[in-house]
TrEMBL record:
Domain Glycosyl hydrolase family 92 N-terminal: 27-254
Pfam family, one: Glyco_hydro_92N
Keyword DNA damage: no
UniProt keyword terms in alphabetical order: Calcium, Signal
Record Gene3D superfamilies: 2.70.98.10, alpha-1,2-mannosidase, alpha-1,2-mannosidases domains, GH92 mannosidase domain
UniProt key word Calcium: yes
Signal sequence interval, chain numbering: 1-20
Residue ranges of the region described as Disordered: 738-757
Name used for this protein in its record: Putative alpha-1,2-mannosidase
Chain ranges of the Glycosyl hydrolase family domain: 260-736
Gene Ontology terms, MF aspect: carbohydrate binding; peptide-N4-(N-acetyl-beta-glucosaminyl)asparagine amidase activity
Length: 757
């Protein structure tokens, strides 16, 4: 891969040094994590071409229509270039359509029209995607927030066709030959099922006249030449241009109306003379965005991994609002099917993203984050429930009620854009009812959780994991109530935030499934996946006490036993017993391939665990383990992740950890220390301040913090606060290859726990 620079790149002692505003988008590889399949994921990503948090993304399509495996690196053909919104292959996509250039003979069906390609002829950057297909067409894309600029360069003297595929659901097509335009709408994917009138309106403006045109049906294959309109399931269009043409297409879409799509086309793409102009504008936006965190002193591979992860962390949640002719935000609500003024964001699952992706957003983009958390309460008003997994409406997937984590975390960090009493009432409703849309829409087992102090198994699947996450969520509600002086809710949730203790079995030294009669589920096996746990086993969930590590330490018999238990995670065999899954799921395979014992970083439950040494008197182990995980399990290639990337969460873990800290307990204002990858990291905050982390003598061997100074004063704590970071300043570390076993050991140096030291 050739990396281009517009400013001086100084190379010395094997490290990279950045100066001034950098072309950081050139470091990003959007193919990171795309070599994934059902049995083993290396990220479960696709080569997203988009702007930060943009409403739409764009990608080449190697998979069949409707297949969640949208783009797989090992595939050898492309069958279309899609507008996409997919969070994960497991959730599939919605509001999709595609365009595919075809030469010589018109081929409509996706299997017939597909063309071979090579990664040697592919460029995959945030602001620009390009591929030369074996059919001779060079296809290029450059994004806007709600649109894209495409160009199809057909081989000389060959017939030039373009196929629009209406994908898997209902579609409407209108061809305007005079104005060189196609308009229409789509309704496809599980995310649009809730409302029949939920449509993705689109407008495609071409710069070349049509030689011939028509509509077609991707179910029957029927073609209607010179037809200007079609409506129904799977309807599409085809165009023919002059032989050997070079055709540009400007595309915009809207969930509100065709008129709004036309407004967006004009405002986002109207002034662009060519694709180069759109790409240059997109690159400038990405460079400004990525320069919010400027790292120096690492290897080129480190740089590419960092900025590829930072890119991926900057895609979710997506803006779901649009800008009208007066420049004001409004949106079609996926929660009540009506149009509202203001801001809305969608396409994320909080079970994954509450842990790191939103704490990173709160740090870098507090204005956007403030709008986001305020919109959570708008969503509550519109559908009667706080979101747990929005795609784009409430799906209720996974477990827990983690919207309260985002709300409490924002408040703890001074982002006060919502009514806290309203938030607490909404959460109280969430915690005392069960909604219709999945396990995390309301609470499974809420009555038993309240009366017994835990969710019983096997009456409820994944019951122990749910107990642990409910207790954490209750802490978040308690803390929000405490911070805002709401004694009623402080008392209600203060009684439940210690419920994690009710599923701890001292006789086995793990959290465990517990029956409704109080007895433990028989035949305990810490290596067995599923059952009372979610996508993991007892080794993974024993650490899920984000709000009270000290209380967990006490349950285990003190710091020595706690540290021994954590050490053993990495030393026990990477044994997998498939349990209630009945067969290997990809997370099991990924843990075994990582070869780090029972440490399963490819999934969320254990990702915070290595930071818990900061609570138990051995912070140097956090430092070495964090660096080990980053160097062993992440890279910038198609195999770049140790499992599903999950809407920015796994990338955000890396971005935060590479800066030298992590958000163990969102809902507080603390970021717990690890070990920075780079010699220098400059974070430019939204308020204009800079927080500069300098790590003297840092290297792949010097991973331990010997001394630390915050703003020139000795700093012994094992955490930084949000205000310390956003107020700006200098955090100076001296790194060494041997652990300093005297630093950070005082009780006052340890991060927050409900149980006081």
């Amino acid at each position: 891969m050739i990396v281009r620079f517009s400013v001086l790149l100084i190379i010395f002692t094997g490290c990279l040094k950045l100066t001034a505003q950098q072309e950081l988008a050139d470091y990003v590889n959007t193919l990171q994590g795309t070599n994934s399949k059902h049995e083993l994921t290396r990220g479960n990503t696709y080569p997203t071409t988009a702007l930060p948090f943009g409403m739409n993304t764009w990608t080449p399509q190697t998979g069949n229509n409707g297949d969640g495996w949208k783009y797989q690196y090992f595939k050898e053909t492309i069958r279309g270039f899609q507008q996409a919104h997919q969070c994960s292959s497991w959730s599939n996509d919605y509001a999709v359509f595609s365009l595919m250039p075809v030469t010589q003979t018109l081929k409509l069906n996706e299997n017939d029209r597909q063309s071979g390609f090579s990664h040697d002829n592919e460029t995959a950057k945030p602001h620009y995607y390009q591929v030369s297909l074996e059919n001779g067409v060079n296809t290029e894309m450059a994004p806007t927030e709600r649109g894209v600029h495409m160009r199809f360069s057909y081989p000389k003297s060959q017939k030039a066709f373009l196929v629009l595929d209406g994908y898997t659901g209902f579609s409407s097509i209108n061809i305007d030959e005079k104005n060189k335009r196609i308009t229409g709408y789509l309704h496809n994917g599980r995310g649009m099922d809730r409302f029949e009138h939920f449509k993705n309106y689109f407008v495609i403006q071409f710069d070349k006249p049509f030689k011939t045109f028509g509509t077609w049906d991707n179910i029957t294959g029927e073609k209607k030449g010179q037809a200007i309109a079609a409506e129904g399931k799977g309807k599409g269009a085809y165009l023919q241009f002059k032989d050997g043409a070079k055709v540009q297409a400007k595309i915009a879409s809207s969930y509100i109306s065709l008129k709004q799509a036309e407004v967006t086309l004009k405002t986002e793409l109207g002034k662009a003379k060519n694709l180069e102009a759109t790409g240059a504008k997109a690159k400038k936006i990405w460079n400004t965005h990525l320069n919010k965190i400027r790292v120096e002193g690492g290897s080129e591979a480190d740089f590419k991994t960092f900025y590829s992860c930072f890119f991926r962390a900057s895609l979710f949640s997506r803006k779901f609002y649009e800008i009208n002719e007066a420049g004001e935000p409004y949106y079609f609500s996926p929660y009540d099917g009506k149009v509202h003024e203001g801001y809305m964001y969608t396409d994320t699952g909080f079970w994954d993203t509450f842990r790191a992706q939103f704490p990173l957003n709160a740090l870098l983009y507090p204005e956007m984050h403030g709008r986001y958390v305020a919109a959570l309460l708008d969503a509550y008003e519109q559908c009667g429930w706080l979101p747990s997994w929005s795609f784009p409406s409430e799906a209720g997937s996974m477990i827990g009620n983690h919207a309260i984590s985002l709300l409490a975390d924002a408040w703890a960090k001074g982002i006060h854009t919502f009514d806290p009493e309203k938030a607490l009432k909404a959460y109280y409703h969430e915690a005392t009812e069960k909604g219709p849309w999945g396990p995390a829409n309301g609470r499974h087992g809420h009555k038993e959780y309240y009366t017994l102090g835990y969710v019983p198994y096997p009456k409820y699947g994944e019951a122990t994991a749910k107990t642990l996450e409910y207790a954490y969520d209750d802490f978040c509600a308690y803390n929000l109530a405490k911070m805002t002086g709401n004694a009623f809710y402080e008392n209600v949730f203060g009684r439940q935030m210690y419920n994690y203790k009710n599923v701890w079995d001292d006789s086995v030294g793990f959290m465990r499934g517990r029956k409704a009669n109080g007895s433990w589920v028989e035949d305990f096996d810490p290596y067995e996946w599923g059952g009372p746990f979610t996508e993991g086993n007892a080794w993974h969930y024993v650490w899920s006490v984000f709000q009270d590590p000290k209380g967990l330490i006490d349950l285990m018999g003190g710091e020595q036993q706690f540290n021994t238990k954590m050490d053993s995670v990495f030393s026990v065999p990477n044994t997998v017993h498939v349990g209630t899954y009945g067969g290997k799921i990809h997370e099991m395979t990924e843990m075994q391939l990582a070869d780090m014992g029972q440490y399963a970083h490819g999934n969320q439950p254990i990702q915070h665990m290595i930071y818990l040494y900061n609570y138990s008197g051995q912070p140097w182990k956090t430092q070495s383990r964090a660096r080990q995980v980053m160097s062993k399990l992440y890279n910038y290639t198609e195999n770049g992740y140790p499992g599903d990337e999950d809407q920015g969460q796994t990338s955000s873990w890396y971005v935060l950890s590479a800066m030298g800290f992590y958000s163990v307990c969102p809902g507080t204002d603390e970021y717990v220390l690890g070990s920075p990858v780079f010699e220098k990291t400059t974070i430019t905050l939204e308020n204009g301040n800079e927080f500069v982390i300098s790590a003297k003598n840092n290297s792949d061997k010097n991973v331990f913090i010997n001394t630390a100074n915050l703003n020139s004063e000795i700093f012994t704590k094992n955490y930084l606060t949000y205000s310390q970071i956003i107020n700006g300043g200098s955090f100076d570390l001296e790194m060494t290859n041997t652990p300093n076993k005297t630093r950070g050991l005082k009780e006052t140096d340890k991060p927050f726990s409900l149980t006081e030291n």
